[in-house]
């Protein structure tokens, strides 16, 4: 079974204590109906992620998902009405964890540039530590289905307010085009996706200075953005 868990965070497909989640035992097992349902759902999310990463979204038929998950078709339809819905649930589970990582990293920062830098560092660290989940969220949705591609775009744009706060940081930034944040976020996703596609995972954390300069330049100007990017070459404070 494909493992979707990250450090101290349970993901669909793995049980407590780091053990992978296998089929439920037959007969009397002492699990409540709610626990059984949760176990089935986690295995289904794990299964579709495994299939998509190994063979692409087109291979993720319901027949194949339930086979990999060791769940019946009837139980699949108790949780999801389609393979697309199952994919979106797995996507949202990873996205929610990424949101928490970014929020936690940015919360202690007192200035807007510091919050942006902390968010970028947290995102890159997660992608580098779990490139499988990063590829599932950043790369695979684009070519899956129109609905999944739209959900991916909407998820990326959820981070636009973090960047848009820079418009109030300097008066000149208020005149930026309305599409600035969308363009910057698209550039960030593209930049992070390239190492994933090339399996050059070691380069992901090293993208931080370039991404900081890229994102901050429209708001702070090239010179100030370059100065802040240079600070990113130093180890983050503990």
Write the layout of secondary structure elements.
Blueprint: H1 33-55, H2 62-69, H3 73-79, H4 83-106, H5 112-129, H6 131-138, H7 146-157, H8 160-164, H9 180-198, H10 208-220, H11 222-231
Helical percentage: 55-70%
Shape: elongated
For the sheet with most strands, the description reads:
none
Count of extended strands: 0
Q: H/E series, N to C?
A: HHHHHHHHHHH
Beta-strand content bin: under 5%
Number of helices: 11
Span between N and C termini?
A: 36 Å
User: Over the alpha carbons, how many angstroms does the gyration radius reach?
Assistant: 20 Å
Poorly predicted runs? 1-28
Q: What average pLDDT do the residues reach? A: 85
Structural class: mainly alpha
What does this structure look like?
Helix 1 packs across helix 2 and helix 5 runs antiparallel to helix 10. The chain has 11 helices and no strands. The chain is 62% helix and 0% strand. The protein has 238 residues and is an all-alpha fold. The N terminus is likely disordered.
Question: Key terms for this structure?
Answer:
elongated; disordered N terminus; single chain
Outline:
By secondary structure, this protein is mostly helical.
